[in-house]
Structure formats: C-alpha cells, structure tokens
Specification:
11 helices; TIM Barrel; single chain; 299 residues
C-alpha cells in the first residue's frame, strides 16, 4: 500500500513553534566535557555552529570535533561558523583530538571540519592523521563528516585510506536550492559523486548524508534527493529542521521558510526507511552527528 503524505497544519516562520522549545540539561557532566575541550584547545561544531543539541551531547560526554581551525573559506548562508582567512594548521591537533576522545571515553568519534579551499589538499591529510590518532589512542570507531573536496579530487582518496567506519557528507538541500544554500562553488552532482566514490574505494565503509528541511523545498524534491542518495549507495540518512543561527543577524543567514512538525518528520523517516536506507534519524533537532554512535552500532 503506497504511503500517503499526511495533511498537517504547520505554522509559518518566523514564530518558533512549541516543539522547538526545550529545556537545557543541567549538571556537572556538561562542565566536564567543556573543561576537556578547553584544556586541549579544541574546536567543536557544537559550539561553532551553535548546535541546539550541544548541552544534551555534552551532558553525555560527547562532542563532534571540528578540525582545521574555526574559520571557513565558504560563505554558506545557513552556517554560524566564522568565514574568512583561516589560520595555519596546528600539527598536533590530531593527537589532541585523540586525547580528548580518550578522556571522554568515546566509543564512536565524529570528526568534522571547516572547508579549507586555501589548502592544496583541502585538509585531507589532517583528516587522515586524525582518524589514525583516534584509533591508536582509543580503539573507537571513527566517523568523518567532510567538506566536498571540490578543489582536489585526490583528497577523498587520502581520507578513505584511513578507513573510517562511517563517511558522512551532507547533501544539505535540493538541487534547485543548492547554490543559494551552499554557495557558488557547490555542486549537487559532485556531492552524489563523492558518496559514490567512497563505495568504489572501500565498499566496507558506511556512507551517510543529511538534509536540512524548512528552506522552501517540496516533498517531491525531498523524495527525488532520497532516490539519488540511494542510487549513490548511501546507507544512513539524517533529516532535521533548519534553524537560523542568529535572529539578531538575520541579514547574514537564510530565512526559515517553514517549521516542519514532528509528525511530518516521523512520516518522512518511515518513508525513507521503506525506500531502502539502512538507518534513518528524522526529527526537528536531528543533526548530522546526532546519536551517531547509536546509528552506526545498530547496523
């Protein structure tokens, strides 16, 4: 029996709906996680991208490490990470990431980065060294969430040579909205090709991608992207609500076109699973690395 899209009454942006209001977890564990990160002078996407799940994750002694600095060379209209001219790389960063993973007792470590179009290898060697350092120090599984490496095709080969258990690269949005959301250097077909090449280089690596919803996409467009991702061999999928990083700097960021109700996210998640994704996380607060260990271990 074919799935039918539920008819749902969703409030229009910009009023924040009740389901996007949540209590902040309290406790000393939050401070412990923050102290480890500060002591080792590490960046996280949790802090830099103003993730709404930061305190929840910190309270569980987990974080998504952001390597290659905290300044991005891409002017994406959805991201809170600073843009501009990055600093030089820190040679000991992979070891510091590994030490933090050890102190936090992580069994699954997620490593992401800013985009570094200024580097000849786009930061691939740093990813490679970080995966090896974490594995040597902790024995944990590793998930990388990489930029698109569009300036250096060979960069992906170097990252895959480290054999991370999960390779994540976000599709983010629909082809119609791609350049508007991800900037002029982005390319939807390149993104799909990146995921496809991972499977060609190492079929054992699980591939993962994510979409932000609420930017004006249609359901038909969403399902077309899901079909393209499955055709590229994508194993895991995340679907989450786009939230403007700062209401006081609205002119810097893309507006929220629509807030998607939890019931609709649940429907889309079930539909995606029925289409063939091995694991799906779908909900207003879902982000790329949200409950990443559970997703990786369930498969």
């Amino acid at each position: 029996m074919p799935l039918e899209l539920p008819i749902l009454d969703s409030p229009a942006a910009p009023r924040l709906p009740r389901w996007l209001k949540r209590e902040v977890p309290k406790g000393n564990v939050n401070h412990f996680t923050s102290h480890v990160l500060e002591d080792l002078k590490l960046e996280t996407v949790c802090e830099n991208a103003k993730c709404p799940n930061r305190m929840e994750c910190y309270s569980q002694k987990t974080a998504t490490f952001m390597i290659l600095g905290n300044v991005c060379t891409r002017p994406c209209g959805f991201c809170a990470v600073s843009r501009g001219r990055p600093d030089d790389l820190s040679a000991d960063e992979p070891e510091r990431v590994a030490e933090a993973a050890f102190r936090l007792g992580l069994r699954h470590v997620v490593i992401t980065s800013v985009t570094r179009d200024d580097l000849p290898d786009a930061g691939a060697e740093h990813f490679y060294q970080s995966v090896l350092a974490v594995r040597k120090r902790t024995g944990a599984s590793v998930e990388v969430l990489t930029p698109d490496f569009i300036t250096n095709r060979a960069a992906l080969d170097r990252v895959i040579a480290a054999a991370p258990e999960v390779f994540n690269h976000n599709t983010e949005t629909m082809p119609r909205l791609y350049r508007k959301v991800r900037g002029p250097k982005s390319d939807y077909r390149w993104t799909l090709g990146l995921l496809r090449r991972v499977k060609q280089l190492n079929p054992a690596i699980k591939t993962k991608s994510g979409l932000m919803l609420g930017l004006g996409e249609t359901h038909e467009e969403v399902f077309e992207v899901l079909a393209d991702l499955l055709d590229a061999g994508c194993d895991f999928l995340t679907l989450g609500q786009y939230l403007m990083p700062s209401a006081t700097m609205a002119d810097h960021y893309l507006p929220v076109v629509r807030y998607i109700p939890p019931e609709e996210f649940a429907f889309l998640g079930r539909a995606a699973k029925s289409l063939g994704f091995k694991q799906v996380a779908s909900g207003p607060f879902v982000r790329s690395s949200y409950h990443a260990r559970e997703m990786a271990e369930m498969f």
